[in-house]
Design brief:
It contains 13 helices and 21 strands. It has 420 residues and is α/β, with parallel strands linked by helices. The strands form 5 sheets. Strands 1, 2, 9, 10, 11, 12, 13 and 21 form an 8-stranded mixed sheet that branches. Strands 7-16-17-18-15-19 form a 6-stranded mixed sheet. A 3-stranded antiparallel sheet has the order 5-8-6, covered by helices on one side. The two termini are 28 Å apart. The mean pLDDT is 96.
């Protein structure tokens, strides 16, 4: 008789890892499509062996669950270097006022009710056009939204942005720390605790509801379980075949999302030359929109700037050949920080747009104006099939913190259901 697991978890990002580890005492199997764990958390090495995060990287004190895990696994927190002057590019006479107005806009939208009929049919672009702010403030706000949500504001429903942003509750800057060993090493350590209960290189193609639960087809095999947790982003979950087909509302809820477009670049220098001029290395570009850099240098590991290219800019720039893309990045850094920025020793570039196993970064966003209940429908699942991902988290959606919260929540829900 074939073995039947209690739970099969699809995906070994932080949601899947957290769910599996929370199901203490249960027979759990985790199936991961990629040859590594971490999902949108990933790392690479410079030529000298220094490991750097090429996916999610930053944490802050307000993210209590990921901070507790970092302490448990003995990771080193590095304060993100922010001493010195931060820059806006190109500079303008109203930079300070534009920033204050942009911040006020974000606070204003957080006070809105996502269910308010007045914003029901509005995109973020529609709402922004109605606000009485300067052109500079509007551009700053758009840069923030497209930089964080990684999609054009003309396709983001205003109600969705309000609902999503209200769940991001940090008081400290979200780039307060990064992890010396990489946050990806935390995923590796969590995976090690699962041992042979985790199989990488097993992309799930189909989930079939059976008389005893589910059959999960991956790598040419069918694995059986009483329940399944689909712990991948909605866009990736929508690519799995379900037999029988999912109820129409659930299928529609999965189809209401698009993945983000983002390119992350780590640029290594011999020394942090920008500090000679009293600069922090933190640069926010208003032209082009969606470009941001900051200093992630750490003692004994060289001087490094991380650069994010997000939203429509990522979609545009990824059309370049890689040498041209690298040069475009160095040219923008040089324009802000000086000619020495062109003298990079090494560059690690990771384009997350249309990623084979993650869909994109930093997360998926709802684009269907009518899909107000998409998240609730997904959380409810269908019979023995449950859905969980950072996008559905009640706190810090699309962050590592949110992924951990979502994974533990679905594990708890399964435990409660089985005890009833």
């Amino acid at each position: 008789m074939p073995h039947i697991h209690d739970v099969i978890v699809v995906g070994a990002g932080f949601t899947g890892l957290s769910a599996a580890l929370a199901l203490t005492g249960r027979d759990v199997l985790v199936l991961e499509a990629a040859d590594r764990v971490g999902g949108r958390v990933e790392s690479a090495r410079f030529g000298d062996g220094t490991r750097v995060d090429t996916g999610a990287q930053f944490v802050c004190d307000d993210m209590e669950n990921v901070m507790a895990l970092l302490r448990r696994y003995g990771k080193t927190l590095v304060h993100t270097p922010m001493d010195g002057t931060s820059l806006v590019q190109p500079p303008g006479p109203d930079d300070d006022d534009a920033y204050l107005q942009s911040r006020a806009l974000r606070l204003q939208l957080r006070r809105l009710d996502p269910a308010d009929p007045a914003i029901a049919g509005l995109t973020v672009a529609d709402w922004l056009a109605r606000q009485r702010v300067s052109t500079g403030a509007a551009r700053a706000f758009r840069s923030t939204v497209e930089g964080l949500w990684c999609r054009p504001i003309g396709e983001l429903p205003m109600w969705y942005l309000v609902s999503n942003d209200r769940r991001i509750t940090n008081k400290q800057t979200e780039i307060q720390y990064f992890v010396g060993e990489t946050i990806h090493s935390l995923a590796d350590d969590m995976a090690a605790d699962l041992g042979d209960r985790l199989l990488t290189g097993h992309p799930v193609r189909q989930i079939t509801v059976t008389g005893e639960g589910v059959g999960v087809t991956a790598a040419g095999r069918m694995f059986l379980a009483r329940q399944a947790i689909v712990a991948v982003p909605p866009v990736m979950a929508s690519r799995i075949a379900f037999e029988p087909g999912l109820p129409p509302p659930l299928a529609a809820a999965l189809g209401a999302w698009r993945s983000g477009a983002v390119i992350k670049v780590q640029v290594r220098y011999r020394r942090p030359f920008w500090r000679d001029d009293g600069l922090s290395g933190l640069v926010a570009w208003r032209d082009p929109l969606g470009l941001f850099s900051c200093d992630v240098s750490r003692e004994g590991a060289g001087a490094t700037l991380v650069v994010f290219i997000a939203g429509p800019l990522a979609l545009s720039w990824r059309q370049m050949r890689e040498p041209a893309l690298r040069q475009a990045i160095l040219d923008r850094l040089a324009g802000a920080l000086g000619a020495a920025a062109r003298e990079a020793e090494a560059i690690v570039l990771r384009d997350w747009t249309d990623d084979r196993w993650c869909g994109g970064g930093y997360g998926d966003t709802i684009f269907d104006m009518q899909a107000r209940d998409a998240e609730d429908i997904l959380r409810a699942g269908a019979g023995p099939i449950h859905f969980a991902c950072a996008e559905l988290s009640p706190s810090f959606p699309c962050y590592v913190e949110g992924a951990i919260v979502a994974g533990r929540a679905v594990a708890e829900a399964i435990g409660v259901a089985n005890s009833e």
